[in-house]
Amino acid sequence: MPPAIRISQVTKRYGQLLALDQIDLEIRQGEFFGLLGPNGAGKTTLISSIAGLVKPDGGRIVVMGHDVQSDYRNSRRLLGVVPQEIVFDPFFTVRETLQFQSGYYGIRKNDVWIDEILANLDLDAKANANMRSLSGGMKRRVLVAQALVHRPPVIVLDEPTAGVDVELRQTLWKFIRRLNEDGHTIVLTTHYLEEAESQCGRIAMLKAGYLIALDSTSALLRRFSSHLLSLRLRPGDVLPER
Ligand code: ATP
């Protein structure tokens, strides 16, 4: 079974800024994986590289055996990407937004599946509402729904709970956990250690473009003392033993 995502020696520069420095990471199929790090660590750049939206300057990313650069169509079909930024056509209804997304993937719209996604995200009552009439939290639910219309086995979420109230946070986590239990690979970025701790089996920590730690959540928590968990590390710092 190939890994869900294999990242080999991936480097990305924006001008002088090194956003990712030779990142090596393998995420297994069925994992619930967390990418943790402070602002500017490189999390979104890495997620965008996996999604093929950012072209790395070096290295290679392979999604379930399909190279993101040379086999974009197939790799993209295997991924459901929930971006951080909320961008929609304000004149579409929720249902039309999801149907449009189906068309993007060249699949026939499947209203039964769309209804199921809407129900699971407590969006069914809003199916015919215009996107512009939705609250920010509702839009965020549509963002998740949209990533699932083509039934991708690997789901990548960039800070899905940023700026989200407690109720929606719980709805989202319940739904994402179920997707994982159903066999989907989940990769998410977060600033919140508590969230990563309660949801993820393994965690990679990024800081200033460097991968500073990669381990099971429990081992990482055992190994890191509280000041390290505040991520005040610098690249190359020696991790103290507990
Ligand atoms: P946050 O938690 O704030 O979302 P992040 O870990 O996702 O941060 P990135 O958004 O990947 O970090 O940014 C990594 C670095 O690359 C930052 O210093 C950022 O300013 C820079 N950067 C990101 N995108 C661009 C861009 N399009 N052009 C120039 N610099 C960029």
Automatic annotation (TrEMBL):
Domain spans labelled ABC transporter: 5-233
Molecular function terms, GO-annotated: ATP binding; ATP hydrolysis activity
Keywords assigned: ATP-binding, Cell membrane, Membrane, Nucleotide-binding, Transport
Protein name as annotated: Transporter subunit: ATP-binding component of ABC superfamily
Source species of the chain: Georgfuchsia toluolica
Portion of the full sequence shown: 1 to 242 of 303
